[in-house]
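The protein record passed on below.

***
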Amino acid sequence: MLNAILSISLLALAFGLLLGYSAIRFRVEGDPLVERIDAILPQTQCGQCGFPGCRPYAEAIAADSAEINRCPPGGETAMLALADLLGRDPVPLDGEAAEEAEPVLAVIAEQECIGCTLCIQACPVDAILGAAKQMHTVIASECTGCGLCLPPCPVECIRLEPLKVDTGSWRWPFPTTPHDQMKAG
């Protein structure tokens, strides 16, 4: 019995050392640019950019196969940060992203909510709070306005409302240069 325990322990130690050495020797380094781009993106995994998540979008940006202006939840702030990181010129938000760039917030009609929890499961940033068979509510500071909570709601009690402009969300418009005015006119 003692011989069996000793031999299994030695085998486990040998395999552990082999796996540890292999992990260090054959380690694959990630692209540091992709890591930095991914850190700027909002991590909502909403797919509004045309990619299944923020990481694939970051990889596409790093490979120059996607523009920096396709992230509605990140909006203008993320686009400007990406432009600064990559040394590119800022560009307006892309087509659908520009339409959705107006900051919106998911709002749940409390009288209609049946507490099914489907919206909680669909929210990628955990901005919806509630329990089964109880009314749900949206944590406004966490909501990115991605709209992923709308389709699963069986009673359609969730709607996206424009975010009220206050001193915290108001932004100065970009200044125009004479060159921009000549191109427009």
Q: What stands out?
A: The beta strands are 104-108, 128-129, 137-138, 158-162. The two ends are 91 Å apart (CA to CA).
